[in-house]
Design a protein that fits this description.
The chain is an alpha/beta fold. It contains 19 helices and 14 strands.
């Protein structure tokens, strides 16, 4: 696309001036490269802008009624992508500064130098195109590095996405709770990337991996000579995260004595390095995760109540994979694509029997276990689609045990139909026999679920009674 074209059309320049000779003269000078429109007043110019296709507005400064500066203010408030250039016979530095403050791209004095005008319009349109391109790329980056890695369309995950979008732009501390492998760190990274601190550092500390003494030094840093081996001052993670986000993974594992120091640091955003007396002030946002029931730990005296309330400003619970089984096909598709590319394999998907087996498995290790399983299957398969034969032996064994449980006694050898029935009945139990919620979790229609339940009853595999599935 050339500078003189916008999406395959000539750029539209709106000339606003109460003097008809000026308008006509500028139109004659520009019409070879631009579509030129005229407006004799600011209200008429607003009508033209409302058409939505004006690229550049050239407006006189002094006009009867609404002047050029007021027109500029209103145009920028409603049509911020329009490039505005002011024209006046009364040019001054003060007027130019005032125009720039209100969003003018540039400022020209009358009589207009047409060569200067041509260069100015060319530069303005290039700048406008560049801004649009930057916005497009930023949007793609937000999609890619915001929540793209958190995959799911179940009701449970939609609720998580809503909470992330609401919490991210704020400065609120967020506590992310969920079992191991549910993706808590991915959620924390998404909150950081979608926040105003995204250009700052995202500093992670895995609290369970360090002893209390090492963790204190890791968080707050230390002075030279604070302990054996401390040969120089070292900044801690709080200082490293200044201006960005501090992520404390598995915060429940922090020692009781360190909880006191952490609480003070979070309340005041100040601390002293280990072995030091200087008070350090930082600007951080805190995100924390735990796989524990932190509220229960507070009741048991294993975690400070005041620290818990300080952490629990926004609370995000990540459901285990078993509670969002509808997301398993999406996750499998994403992981197959990821690992086929990584390992140079031509795998394109799952066969129906493999998909059914993976959907029936309980996934105690959650999304992490599923991801590792798909990688193993992609690496070891001999075909271009993953089959039931590629499903790891530990999963096949677990499904056979499940199929042989009392609930499915009489099953003929744990067939796929038996596994499907087991999966449906388990989902019904989790949802207290509610058909609608169960259908959403399983990713099937309510009508399909009812048809299957009726078939189980006809075969004597599902009893009627007070615990029968509800609407």
């Amino acid at each position: 696309m050339t500078t003189g074209e916008t999406n395959g059309r000539l750029p539209v320049v709106l000339v606003v001036d109460d003097d008809k000779n000026t308008r006509d003269g500028l139109e004659r000078a520009m019409r070879r490269r631009y579509e030129v429109r005229q407006a004799e007043s600011a209200p008429r110019a607003m009508d033209e802008l409302a058409r939505g296709d004006v690229d550049v507005m050239l407006t006189d400064m002094r006009m009867p009624g609404m002047d050029g500066l007021e027109l500029l203010r209103r145009a920028q408030a409603r049509y911020s992508d329009v490039v505005c250039v002011l024209l006046t016979a009364y040019g001054s530095v003060e007027t130019a500064v005032e125009a720039m403050k209100h969003g003018a791209y540039d400022f020209l004095t009358k009589p207009v130098n047409l060569d200067h005008l041509e260069v100015l319009l060319d530069r303005a349109l290039r700048s406008r195109a560049m801004e649009a391109r930057v916005q497009e790329l930023e949007g793609r980056l937000d999609d890619k590095y915001g929540m793209e890695r958190i995959i799911g369309q179940s009701a449970e995950m939609r609720q998580v996405f809503d909470l992330v979008r609401q919490a991210a732009p704020t400065q609120a501390t967020v506590l992310i709770q969920g079992a191991s492998g549910t993706g808590k760190e991915l959620v924390a990274q998404a909150i950081h990337r979608l926040s105003g601190r995204s250009r700052g550092a995202f500093v992670a500390v895995h609290c369970a991996a360090l002893s209390p003494t090492l963790l204190e030094s890791e968080l707050f840093g230390h002075e030279r000579g604070a302990f054996t081996g401390a040969t120089a001052r070292r900044k801690g993670r709080f200082e490293q995260a200044d201006g960005g986000t501090l992520f404390l993974d598995e915060i429940s594992e922090i020692d009781a004595s360190l909880q006191v120091k952490l609480l003070r640091a979070l309340e005041t955003r100040t601390f002293e390095r280990v072995g030091g007396e200087e008070t350090v002030t930082v600007d951080i946002r805190l995100l924390a995760t735990t796989n524990r029931d932190l509220e229960a730990w507070v009741r048991e005296g294993r975690f400070r109540e005041d620290l818990y309330f300080r952490l629990n400003v926004v609370d995000i619970h990540l459901p285990p994979l078993a509670q969002r089984a509808a997301d398993i096909p999406l996750l499998c598709e994403a992981f197959i694509r990821e690992f086929a590319g990584k390992h140079g394999r031509s795998v394109t998907g799952l066969t129906a029997d493999a998909a059914e087996m993976l959907g029936a498995y309980a996934w105690p290790g959650n999304v992490r276990e599923l991801r590792n399983t798909i990688e193993k299957m992609v690496v070891l398969t001999h075909g271009d689609r993953l089959t039931a034969r590629d499903v790891p032996a530990n999963i096949r064994d677990a499904l056979r045990v499940s199929a042989a449980s009392p609930r499915s006694a009489g099953a003929a050898g744990g067939s796929l139909a038996d596994l499907e029935r087991e999966r449906i009945l388990l989902a019904l139990a989790r949802n207290r026999q509610n058909r609608s919620k169960t259908a959403v979790e399983l990713g099937i229609s309510r009508r399909t679920l009812i048809r299957k339940l009726n078939a189980y009853r006809a075969d004597g595999l599902l009893a009627d009674g007070p615990n029968a599935p509800s609407q």
